[in-house]
Amino acid sequence: MKQMLFKEWAAVWVEEKRKYVKESTYANYVVVLDNHLIMRLGEYKVCDITKEIVQNMIIEMRDRGRRDKRGGLSDKTVKDIIAILKMCLRDYGRNDGWIYGKNALKYPLNCNAAQIRIMDDDMYRKMLSAINREHDFEAMGYALSLYTGMRIGEICALQWKDIDLEKKIIYVSKTLQRIYLKEGNRGVTKIIIGAPKSKSAIREIPIAKALESFLESSVSSGEYYILSGTAKYIEPRLYRQHFMDFLCRNKLDYMRFHDLRHTFATRCIERGGDYKTVSCILGHSSVNMTLNRYVHPQLEQKRKCVDLV
């Protein structure tokens, strides 16, 4: 094989991948290559990219990897970038141990990582009180996340036809997201509504009794979106901003929308839900993902634990 520069191989690789992956996955590959990998590795021959070069790149991205120069990238973002790089190198024919997980790359401890906010009982009651006070379509989306752990893209894509109030089931089969694509030398974005990120994310979620009355009082035409009550969707980026406005309006503490999902998972486990069932409700591919990412013991649980000794 000709000794190709990384930028040359990356262009070939991503277009080949386009034939086999979802449009959203392809768009993610394009963003990672354009914004992170080609700018750092593009002029290297593929065979000259060593573990040391990539290790230094990891440290640089963690410290100052943001494109706006305002700090570093998150742990997850850096690991996702490296995962795509490894796929690209493997498909070229590289078989170095570090690419396949042996002599693993090291990721520095991030002391400035965004803190996950899990609501305590008092905050949870205040949140539900604010949701019931506003009692509109968008507030119903916050209730859905608190009572089902659904992702924001899944909630934005949810239509009334996906909810069976008679059987008390929510059918999750799609997600809504804005993706980045290239048209020639021009970057464009577009909204797509498609299958969730994995097979396990396609699932049935029982409707909690507390959520049932909220849904029954707002039910609308089957083709209408839950969040708008019309045939027009609300995209995640805008809905996140609406959630921030909701918190400010109701004088609630700052949290990310995704923290509602973390709160749901943690409260389920604290109240006796088994890990496998919670994992299935969240749409995770493994119980380990649920335990490692979404279960956060609160101080009261920690006190009970040490008192057992």
Automatic annotation (TrEMBL):
Residues 4-93 form the Core-binding (CB) domain. Keywords: DNA integration, DNA recombination, DNA-binding. Site-specific tyrosine recombinase, which acts by catalyzing the cutting and rejoining of the recombining DNA molecules. This is Integrase-like protein. InterPro entries: CB (IPR044068), DNA_brk_join_enz (IPR011010), Integrase-like_cat_sf (IPR013762), Integrase_catalytic (IPR002104), Integrase_recombinase_N (IPR010998), Integrase_SAM-like_N (IPR004107), Tyrosine_recombinase_XerCD (IPR050090). SUPFAM superfamilies: DNA breaking-rejoining enzymes. Residues 114-307 form the Tyr recombinase domain. The keyword DNA-binding applies. GO terms for biological process: DNA integration; DNA recombination.
